[in-house]
Fold this sequence. Notes:
By secondary structure, the protein is an alpha/beta fold. It has nine helices and 14 strands. Helices cover 35% and strands 25% of the residues. A hairpin with a 7-residue loop joins strand 9 and strand 10 (129-133). The chain is globular.
Amino acid sequence: MIQLHPIPAFQDNYLWLLHDGAQALVVDPGDAAPVLAFLAQHQLQLQAILLTHHHADHTGGVAELRAATGAAVYAPAAETLPASVGQVQALADGDRVALLGLEFEFFSVPGHTAGHGAYLAAQAPGGPLLFCGDTLFSAGCGRLFEGTAAQMLASLDRLAALPDETRVCCAHEYTLSNLRFAQAVEPGNADVEQHLAHCSALRERGLPTLPSTLAQERRINPFLRSREPAVIRAIAQHDPQAVDEIARFAALREWKNAFR
């Protein structure tokens, strides 16, 4: 049986670990220590490391994990990785990799970084699994550090087209702050209100709000809803100069950047 575990790291990261009871893979291990502890506790062998982008909180533990386990590392071909990561199996859009008896398809989703990638296991037990790094968050999306608003909008459109039941395994516990922003954008969205109450209760118990699903995200995520009339009206009030869909998306992202 394939099992999925979000391993907390740093202040708000999740290092996603997938295993079959014997072999494991981990996504974006910024810190090796909690991964090694989990592997030892559950007597697992690390088979592979999947990287979505180059930021240190996603790559910082790779060298130690490689040295300890000999795991193969997969990463976006278009991303410039730290030298400490070492040799990787570089993936281009549409490439497929077989791990843990599952097939992972690599998606190029630039925006947060120039070469950001995501991994989809469409046939995973329990429904498709999407490891999307810092591109898509629950009720949010990543900041535009290297890419453009047009790139991020296209990347999110591509992910949003995946099946409703796709589980969204993003890399940060940003859900509550993102939902508060979603409230400001769409104060009449009852789905946002209900999900905020649900996620607040989870966090009070020390539980993760993730994974989400794409069906849920289409209801609550303003960055997937930037073409909805209510969101268009909200953006127009915030930035009247944003008159096309890319400008509106850029304005929405800037609004979130300054939101407190």
